[in-house]
Amino acid sequence: IMVATVQLPSGSAWTLPAYKGSTEGLHRNIYFFSGSGASVDGESQQSRTRVKVRPDMDVQLTAGGTPADFLILQGRDLGEPVVQGGPFVAASRDELIKADRDFRTTGFGGWQYDSDAPVQAREAPRFMTYADGSKEERKI
User: Fold this and answer.
1) d(CA 109, CA 103)
2) Is 7 helix (H, G, I), strand (E, B) or coil?
3) Which of 3, 33, 82, 116 has most Cβ atoms within 10 angstroms of its Cβ?
4) pLDDT band at 138 (very low <50, low <70, confident <90, very high)
5) What's the whole-model pTM score?
6) For residues 25 and 48, what is the distance between their CA atoms, to the nearest angstrom?
7) Which DSSP letter does residue 18 get?
8) How far apart are CA 83 and CA 122, in angstroms?
9) Which tens digit of pLDDT belongs to each residue from 70-121?
10) CB–CB of 26/70 below 8 Å?
C-alpha cells in the first residue's frame, strides 16, 4: 500500500515513477484536491478529481498557475468481499447495516467537536487525545 501527498509549486512538474514489481491486482489513483488547475500526463484536470492511472507507467503531475496538491493511493485487491454503503465499507451487508445503526445511535461513541467536517483548519496544530482525556498538540 502506498499513500502519499505531493505538493507542487505553481508551474512545476514531478514524475511519479512506475512501480517496478508485479502489477497484478495493483491499482493506482491520483486525486487532485487543491489548486485552480493541474494536469496528469498532459491531460488538464479540475480540482477535486480522481484519475486512475496504470501503475506500470511513469506519470507526470504538473501544477497550473497556482500551487497544486495531489493524493496518491496505490494498493492491491483484497481478494475478500467488500460491501459499500454511504461512508461505510464492510465485508457483508449485515456488517454494513450494523455499522450504520451504531453510527446513528452513538456516533461511534460521540463526537466532541462542534462540526461534522472531515478536516480541521489548515493552521491548527496536530493533536492526539488520549483515553484519559489528556491532549497533546504539535506544530506542523
Assistant:
1) 8
2) strand
3) 33
4) confident
5) 0.63
6) 25
7) P
8) 33
9) 999 999 988 888 999 888 899 999 999 998 888 888 776 666 667 666 667 7
10) no
